[in-house]
Amino acid sequence: MNVEPQVQSKLLELAGLDAELARTAHRRTSLPEQQEVDRLETERNTRKDAAVAVQIILDDLDRDIRKLEGEVDAVRKREQRDRDLLQGGTVGAKQLTELEHELSSLERRQGLLEDDLLEVMERREASQADYDHAGAQLSKVEDELIDVRRRRDDALADLDSSVAARTADREALVVNFPTDLLEAYEKQRASRGIGAALLQARRCGACRIELDRGEISRIQATAPDVVVRCPECNAILVRTKESGL
Ligand SMILES: [Zn+2]
């Protein structure tokens, strides 16, 4: 393949743009802001689970409270009914004894129910404090997430505009190359990552291997417009004054 040396040397510019595009693509997949978003999302889910767990406890306690309040209310109504009967003065002596007996057992029962109710309400108060704490922690993490996501999106937008600029530069550059040279470059880039490199101080700029004397003499004897390849990695070798030839 024969290509003017000035055109061959533009391959270095192309390789530079491709290296920058590859670095940008890599940065996109390893953004520290994205890692922070991932970490905070995990933390947010843990906090949310914790808040839901406390909510379930609260719901259970509320149900216990309603049940106990219902029982206290039923006992009070029964006591009221018994007292009304006693005050009515129409009950016989036997029923009177029974009613008095029932009233004292109802009072004991009410005392026990009220103790239970008090204990459950205290537990509810403690759980409510836990719930408030869990909610505050959750909203703190959510605020952090909003902030980090915004920073992540800004970083991505910067990378996008860098990619757009380098892609435009690349499009303007590739029109300078003959099709077969560009195809050879792209094929090599696809297989080894670097399509073309500078031959610098007898070393291939792509694989970094120093060419032996025989290879250097062969390249020295090759006309400047002939496209030469690295004998090791097959990259297109661009010759300049720095090549050590
Ligand atoms: Zn090489």
General description of the model:
This protein has 245 residues and is mostly helical. 76% of the residues lie in helices and 5% in strands. It is built from 5 helices and 4 strands, in the order ααααββαββ. It has a 4-stranded mixed sheet. Strand 3 (228-229) and strand 4 form a beta hairpin. Helix 1 packs antiparallel against helix 3 and helix 2 (32-88) packs antiparallel against helix 3. The longest helix has 82 residues, at 93-174. Zinc ion is lined by residues 204, 206-207, 209, 230, 232-233, 235.
Strand tally is 4
Query: Which whole number gives the mean pLDDT?
Result: 96
User: What is the string of SSEs from the N terminus onward?
Assistant: HHHHEEHEE
Multimerization state = single chain
Q: Specify the overall morphology.
A: rod-shaped
pLDDT < 50 runs, ≥5 residues: none
Q: Remind me, CATH topology of the largest domain?
A: Helix Hairpins
What is the element layout, followed by pairings?
Layout: H1 5-29, H2 32-88, H3 93-174, H4 179-192, E1 196-200, E2 203-204, H5 213-220, E3 228-229, E4 236-239
Parallel strand pairs: 1-4
Antiparallel strand pairs: 1-2, 3-4
Helix pairs in contact: 1-3, 2-3
The structure holds zinc ion.
